[in-house]
Amino acid sequence: MSNRRRKTTKKQSSAMTFFVCVVVLVVLGVSAVKVSNLCEKSKELSETEYALEVKIQNAYLEKQDLIAQEQYMQTKQYIEDVAKDKLGLVYPDEIVIKPSE
Length: 101
What we know:
There is one protein chain. The protein is rod-shaped, with a radius of gyration of 40 Å. By secondary structure, it is mainly alpha-helical. It starts with a helix and ends in a 16-residue tail after the last helix.
């Protein structure tokens, strides 16, 4: 009876070892897939982050341009330029020379 128990225990032990190996392999496979997905997601997020940083930089530069334009629009020079270009106004002591067509 002792031999029979040993054989049964050996069979159970082999089956249990096989089962544990299969479970470990499944867990490793699932983990590998998850890691792969996380790496892809990380790349996508890095690209998105870079694109957003570029947009932020462009917005900052545009803001600086708008501030400079606003400051220029508050000067006497701007008012003179608009009066000359759009309204055709000149100072009384200026002579306007227009090219012939």
